[in-house]
Amino acid sequence: MFASIVRRLIQALFVIVAMTIIVFIGVNVIGNPVDILINPDANQAERARLIAHLGLDKPLWDQYFVFVTGVLHGNFGNSFVYSRPALDVILERLPATIELAVSALVIAIVIGIPLGMYAGLRPRSPISRLIMTGSIFGFSLPTFWVGLMFILIFAVQLGWLPSNGRGQTAELFGVQWSFLTLDGLRHLLLPALNLALFKTSLVLRLTRAGVQEILPQEYIKFARAKGLREGRIVRVHVLKNLLIPVVTVIGVEFGSLIAFSVVTESIFAWPGVGKLIIDSIQMLDRPIVVAYLMMMVVLFVCLNFIVDVLYTLLDPRVRIGAEG
Amino acid sequence: MGISITRREFGRGSLILAAAASMPGLAKAKDTALTIGVAAPFTTLDPHEQSNSPNNATSRHIFDSLINRGGKAENNPQLATNWNNTDDTHWEFVLRKNVKFHDGSDFTAKDVVASLLRARDKPSQSFASYTRNIKQVTAKDPHTVVVETTVPDPMILNSLSRIRIISAKYAKADVSEFDSGKAAVGTGPFKYKSYMPGDRLVVTRNEDYFAGPAHWSLVTLRILPDNGARLANLLSGDADLIENLPAQGIDRVKGSSKFDIIRGQSTRLVFLGMDIERDKTPDITAKDGSPLDKNPLKDERVRRAMLMSINRKAIVDRVMEGNGTVAHQFVAEGYAGHSDDVEPVKYDPEQAKKLLDEAGWKDGFRLTLHGPSGRYVDDSQVLQAVGQFLARIGIETKVNVMPWAVYSEKYNDKLYGVYLASWGINTGEVSNPALALVAKRDSKAGTGRYNAGGVDDPRLNALIKEATRTLDEKKRTPLLEEVSEITFNNLYLLPMHYENVVMGAKKTIKYEPRGDKYTLAYEVKPA
Hints:
The structure holds two protein chains of two kinds. Chain A is mainly α. Chain A contains 13 helices and two strands.
């Protein structure tokens, strides 16, 4: 297990190095951040001073070297736009995104697994058909459209829920959270549902497929023959076996929820990192882009690792690091 | 950031308080909340770090300047009550007395000295265009400040209107201290309450503001760059006023009994720039794609024909849904340097064809129009329309738009023959755009930074030079008028339109939009 962790860390390191090089070259190719940041009235000398201030007067490899040295000292550089440490700017926004992603994930699991199991256990019932048809909508309707419809119906027409923003927050562990206040929850509901829509359909369909695959298995038949109650068969034998693929997908999807929540965040003006990263790309704010992507790589590596650990808990046959 | 009170809750609380205030003997300024949906994100509360309109507009809520820049670019007293130039390079400002910072300390000359020098010496150098001529700032006595300039600078009052005055004790504070509110202590109409970068700034009324307390006791500036989100905020009643009402929302707002559209003309001029310098210019070929032996854009008749072929009235009315006003020169009537002798070019495609014919381009030619997308109001749609108008007089036009991050650097490097560009004329007079757009490019003198078309007219250069060192407005204005005449009677630039300020507001609110597009809560009034 230890060797496996080390191997993964080395892999992650390579990915990070490759990614930072690509971002450095990429941003450089798009354009010059100075042209975006500078006051149009500035003259040549003032422009040169700004370029030097941002450290952009050095050749690209030199800038990269300065960056790497900084990272080794825990400094990701100052954001060009916010003039503050890039990491601070990101960490300030991260709780909002995590809160949204976790809420969406919880909704997806709480709705997706029971409905999926129902549809799997009673495939012929009209309710199952309704569920399955509904899940097609969840898959195929674009997130931004559904988000706009949510706002139009619940905020503009009915006026039940606020149209966007984070609402009132309260502090826990030194971080501001929305889910701790009633107003915050009201603000959280629509964006979380919006983000959860696709994931719910995904979990639902995976669960249903899993149930149908497991039901004809020998051990289910044996359990039935043994005279176990149906509830116990479903809870222990079906659910547990079913969770392996579901956990894998949820684990990977959680990363993508955080990394790609940008559409929902934009529509609902949710002050998270997704919005930050898009703005930063448009403003060519390289330090933010690099620091964010590095965090995402680390996050995905960690998530994959957690998923592997969960496997061993769900299925004793799986051993982390086992060859072959 | 502490627990923030939302507008809804505040509204509830304010009802009770309002009821209390209406009782006799309890007369007190009323509690009223205002939420503004801001379209372009402000990035810091440090008023000297990064100069751009969202930041400078936001800092005006908390801080004041010596000079108060009015909505039509006039210089009014703010922290300075009056001023005069003792000689060509020395300006004396008499400061307002009995003004206090939000923390209760007195405002004196040393705060002014510290602020102006901080803005000048910050490593980011973002305010350099306003501070570059400031040689020294000295406090003559606690209520008099002398600003010495390196050269006679007629724009110094405008420059000083951009520099916010902070308390001298925070002169060494960094960006984080301003953003956290510790150093965000000004003399302005509102006090810092909370700030979440990229999300919102919440400020409360400064009851002791020298010009009288604001109408609003709690103001929230919400950053909502997404058009849909901003519009939804207004329609759902969360915001009272939003900037840049999106075109798709205009009908909804117009048809509603609850909302109003507020329109005003800005000083942002959108124009077509073109290469009038080189004999061979990129992207212009004969219709069969073969290279041309000369550059048609050098001929004034060709440029006139192009402008004549474009129905600009139709563009601002239809394509931009009324979000623009046809322009004929740098500034509209009422601003310094506007000349009645600039001849407006009217839409006349027949005449345009004749002119092309006369210039020897009967068969037309082929060109590529370059422009940004999402930078100016409806920029790519405007370019498409221009392309179709040009095609009607025989100039086969391809339109190429790109993101601002890509375009911003390239258009200025003379890579394009014809390009869409714009200049926000925040000084409200002609020397500022002329210096950047049509003065001969000279990196040492800092002139012609955005003169990508290579305009080089000796008379124009002389006039601009003279105007930038003439202090007497009476002598200066005729110079600027002539600059406008030369630029636009020769069509060195093809003027398209001024962008309009279009805002959506609840009917309960009154606001007079400013030429510089700033949205200032202090100037928002109840209807």
